[in-house]
Design goal:
By secondary structure, the protein is of the alpha/beta class. It has 10 helices and 23 strands. It has helices spanning about 35-45, 90-100, 115-125, 135-140, 170-185, 205-215, 235-240, 240-265, 305-320, 355-365, and strands at about 5-10, 50, 75-80, 85, 105-110, 150-155, 190-195, 220-230, 270-280, 325-330, 340-345, 350, 370, 380, 385-390, 390-395, 400-410, 415-420, 425-435, 455, 460, 465-470, 475-485. Alpha-L-arabinofuranose (AHR) binds near residues 11, 13, 55, 156 and 333.
């Protein structure tokens, strides 16, 4: 498993940056205006990588607005989210923050309204040690050492008609090739992500991927995937099957990547950057046109329930199960905007229910993703057909001998699971904790920090197996130590 599976998106959107990670004057702000209480929660969440500055925002962004003395930075109207962007946080500020927190940055370049020259200039600004126009400007702006940003997204959701500068697939592929060539001439060590479809539902899904890879496949390392899930019209069974929907979405993209590679006789493997995923009640979004123009006004601050948290846990299992091809993933987003961490301006920062499964998996899923199989009943769903009632993912770290198993009971009734682990010698159970969902009636949104994992009372150890009674619609994490054979 690549540890970059535990990334998040930080977009200049709503209150993710302003009054989210950054709030000068807040009692917990550091010397640069970043909130240390939020930074602590980011550490607890176990985030490894942060994608920035968008999202849709990047397609209208001029990164040169966000560098240099703060008092000279322009206030621009951001058309993606109808906000006034004050540019008080920009590239250097963000990268200094990721360095302080020990996070890997993943930067997106604007291929919507800017283009190749500005993309190459940003790589030069970030990664060239000095002696050129843009690198010397960075040094003058107080960053003497190069930022050394390895991972770059070639635009964002360029298949979406809502995207500023949206293009048909063949034209995007040409642009991605030009940008990739220029960026690699500045720094040959960069890793590049081409835009895949912005969702499985896009009418161009499949053909977009094939065309982009035919044209740009020799120049990129990853193809992006994005997906958001929600409960539609009280159809909880389908919602609980989101992990299965993500599973077949990934299978479809992997098949497309490999079909194009075979046709083009490409040996090099292109992997997946699932760089936006989450539960998002998109059907509640009023549409950008209906948003007031404001400075860091709230945008899509979904309040999550324990059912949402169980689904997030299950989506993580799907990502872990595809660790051979999904190398990067970003929960979208990190703070306030459909986020595991919420803040009050001038006040507290707290965890949403979805914080917990992410933090647990990020902490305990290490080493190798195991091929875990289930046999048992299926859940019949309206949207996704029959899916396994219990989903499982497991990891084994050969260095520490730690095993982690993640189980989702998607079924509305208790399920007894017999977990067979006889292949491991000296299996010592360390803990079994679970997140029950508050599954009575409509989603009960949880704003307070009352949600946490608790020990699963009913489990029995046998020789070579562990039997567990999984409550209805719950998420469970088991940890064990083993002797590596
Ligand atoms: O995360 C919110 C938005 O969802 C992002 O800006 C965009 O990339 C996606 O459509």
């Amino acid at each position: 498993m690549d540890r970059r599976l535990f990334g998040c998106l930080v977009e200049h959107m709503g209150r993710c940056v302003y009054t989210g990670i950054f709030e000068p004057g807040h009692p917990a702000a550091d010397a640069d205006g970043f909130r240390t209480d939020v930074a602590e929660l980011v550490g607890e969440l176990g985030v490894t990588l942060v994608r920035y500055p968008g999202g849709n925002f990047v397609s209208g962004y001029d990164w040169t607005d966000g560098i240099g003395p703060r008092e000279r930075r322009p206030r621009r109207l951001d058309l993606a989210w109808r906000s006034v962007e004050t540019n008080q946080v920009g590239t250097d500020d963000f990268l200094a923050w990721t360095t302080r927190l020990g996070l890997e940055p993943m930067l997106a370049v604007n291929l919507g309204t800017k283009g190749v020259q500005q993309a190459a200039a940003l790589v030069e600004y970030c990664n060239v040690p000095g002696g050129t126009q843009w690198s010397d400007l960075r040094r003058g702006n107080g960053a003497p050492d190069p930022h050394g940003v390895r991972l770059w997204c070639l635009g964002n959701e360029m298949d979406g008609p809502w995207q500023q500068g949206h293009l048909p697939a063949d034209r995007y592929a040409d642009l991605a090739v030009e940008a990739a060539q220029a960026m690699r001439r500045v720094d040959p060590t960069v890793e590049l992500v081409a835009c895949g479809s912005s969702s499985h539902q896009m009418p161009t899904f499949g053909s977009w991927e094939a065309t982009v890879l035919e044209g740009a496949g020799d120049h990129v390392d990853y193809l992006s995937m994005h997906a958001y899930y929600e409960e539609h019209d009280g159809d909880r069974d389908s919602f609980l099957a989101s992990g299965a929907a993500m599973d077949s979405y990934i299978d479809g993209v992997v098949a497309t990547i490999d079909a194009v590679a075979a046709r083009r006789r490409r040996k090099r493997r292109i992997h997946i950057a699932f760089d936006e995923w989450n539960v998002w009640y998109q059907s509640h979004f009023p549409g950008v046109e209906n948003l007031p123009v404001d400075v860091s006004g709230p945008r899509i601050e979904d309040v999550y329930s324990t059912v949402d948290a169980v689904v997030v846990g299950d989506l993580l299992s799907t990502l872990v199960n595809h660790a051979d091809r999904v190398k990067i993933a970003c929960l979208a987003q990190l703070v306030n905007v459909i986020a595991p961490i919420m803040t009050e301006p001038g006040g507290a920062a707290w965890r949403q229910p979805t914080f917990h499964p992410f933090a647990e998996v990020a902490a305990s899923a290490r080493g190798n993703s195991l091929v875990a199989r289930t046999a048992g009943p299926e859940l019949a769903t309206r949207r996704h057909g029959y899916v396994p009632a219990v989903n499982v993912a497991a990891t084994h770290d050969p260095m520490s001998g730690e095993v982690a198993v993640f189980l989702t009971n998607r079924y509305p009734q208790e399920m007894t699971v017999d977990l067979l682990h006889s292949g491991f010698e000296n299996w010592t159970l360390r803990s079994v904790d679970h997140l029950p969902s508050d599954d009575r009636g409509p989603r009960e949104r949880k704003t307070a920090a009352t949600v946490r994992l608790t020990p699963l009372a009913r489990h029995r150890s046998r020789s070579g197996s562990t039997e567990l009674d999984l409550p209805p619609r719950s998420w469970t994490q088991l940890r064990a130590s083993v002797r590596t054979p």
